[in-house]
Write a structure and sequence with these properties.
Strand content: 15-25%
Number of strands: 6
Radius of gyration: 23 Å
Strand order of the largest sheet: 1-2-3-4-5-6
Helix content: 25-40%
Distance between the termini: 62 Å
Low-confidence stretches: none
């Protein structure tokens, strides 16, 4: 008679158990890595789309987009100059008390765009650009340049986590710099520069830095500074 070799039931169960433990340990890390790559890719694409639209608006208006006009709110200016150059699939009105969270986990309430009603412009990619309805962008910085800030929400306002540095980022348009992912404190000249360490750990007069104790306003600029990637010390 020929001998037949095989695995016992116990050996099979032990092997499956080991595979299960290894999978449980590695799959969450793999899922997080994929999520980070998707976040960076969508942020880069959305910012590029906004930047192209803003630059076209600046060129076509001959700079009129930045002219002082205290009666023209930021939404009206965005709608007149920038929206025509974007592929917008839907718009929605958002409340004056928007629910967003800082990278620290605390509720974000201080940004002007949080305190007034806003308009959400949803792009074909599913990402949104959120504009304050009431704020004006004619207030000059210390060097005389003017501009305004916007939110990028990568999956739309109604979808969580609505957290800066995760699915929400802050960008601005400035008469000196054009469009950029924000890296300055309020009122600073557009030419101010910050190192990677400063973007991450400050100092910032308004706690804008991108770490687990900060508000996360500079997280987009940190990702861009790192060559469009999320580094190991990023506050994910």
């Amino acid at each position: 008679m020929k001998k037949r070799f095989g695995f016992t039931l116990a050996e099979v169960l032990i092997t499956l158990g080991i595979i299960g433990v290894v999978a449980a340990m590695t799959l969450p890390a793999l899922a997080t890595k994929i999520q980070k790559k998707m976040t960076v890719a969508k942020l880069q694409k959305t910012f590029a789309e906004f930047s192209n639209a803003a630059k076209l608006a600046i060129d076509e208006s001959g700079g009129a987009i930045f002219e002082k006009n205290d009666r023209m709110k930021s939404r009206e200016r965005f709608q007149k100059y920038i929206e025509p150059h974007l592929k917008v699939s839907a718009t929605a009105t958002l409340p004056g008390s928007k629910i967003y969270y800082q990278s620290s986990g605390a509720r974000e309430t201080m940004l002007n765009v949080m305190r007034s009603t806003g308009t959400e412009y949803t792009l074909l990619s599913g990402a949104s650009i959120i504009v304050s309805d009431d704020q004006v962008w004619s207030t000059p910085n210390k060097n005389g340049s003017v501009g305004i800030g916007f939110l990028i929400d990568l999956n739309g306002y109604k979808n969580p986590p609505n957290k800066f540095g995760r699915d929400t980022f802050y960008m601005a348009i400035n008469s000196e710099l054009g469009p950029y992912l924000s890296y300055s404190d309020d009122g600073e000249a557009g030419t101010v520069q910050r190192t990677r360490e400063e973007l991450k750990d400050g100092p910032s007069a308004y706690n804008y830095q991108c770490n687990k104790k900060g508000r996360g306003i500079w997280c987009g600029a940190l990702i861009q500074k790192d060559g469009w990637k999320i580094s190991k010390d990023y506050p994910w």
